[in-house]
Specification:
about 200 residues, mainly alpha
């Protein structure tokens, strides 16, 4: 237990100055984006497992119509999930890019990852937002953009095709990517002026 506390204290000491600097809002946004991407990848695995169940049941029962339908469903689902995963990955990648260009330090970029996990844990990762009953946790998860990225993935795997949730997930991924790319471009200009 002492080693965990010591490690967490060290991580906090390294990461805290970045989140108190003039770029704190960009850093916080990038952190939220990385967490959302990780959650989307987990959701992708859940959807694929559900599809596999239906697909292999159709094979076992030698049901041609269900086999064809599930093959088409897989193609569409895989395409949407790949596109969403790429959007989320690029969005979170811009956060690390910004931190690297702004600080010029690999340690600062590595110091962001524990903070990303905090955003992940303070989202509706384990339960959908409407099932969170603790008021303070529901309020935090509602304000966390990672929650809505996860709901986009859930809409494909659990609820069916909820276009509102998908549009919100793609929109948040695009917004995080645009903000991160803008911040990274600004940091690059600043770095080039300095050198």
């Amino acid at each position: 237990m002492k080693n965990i506390r010591s490690t967490l204290a060290t991580v906090w000491r390294i990461a805290l100055p970045y989140f108190r600097s003039e770029d704190k809002w960009a850093g916080r946004g990038l952190l939220a984006a990385v967490i959302a991407i990780e959650l989307a990848l987990v959701g992708n695995d859940v959807l694929l497992n559900q599809w596999r169940s239906r697909f292999y049941n159709a094979l076992q029962e030698k049901d041609w119509d269900t086999f064809v339908r599930e093959t088409i469903v897989f193609c569409v689902l895989a395409t949407v999930l790949v596109v969403l995963s790429v959007c989320i990955t690029v969005a979170f990648g811009t956060i690390g890019l910004f931190a690297a260009l702004r600080t010029g330090s690999g340690e600062a970029v590595q110091g962001l990852f524990p903070i990303f996990f905090v955003f992940l844990f303070l989202s509706a990762m384990a339960l959908p937002l409407d099932l969170l009953t603790t008021d303070w946790f529901h309020a935090i998860a509602s304000a966390n953009p990672v929650t809505y990225l996860l709901q986009a993935i859930r809409s494909l795997l659990i609820e069916g095709w909820n276009l509102g949730a998908l549009a919100l997930g793609f929109g948040i991924a695009a917004a995080v990517g645009a903000i991160g790319m803008t911040a990274a471009s600004s940091a690059l200009k600043t770095r080039l002026v300095r050198t």
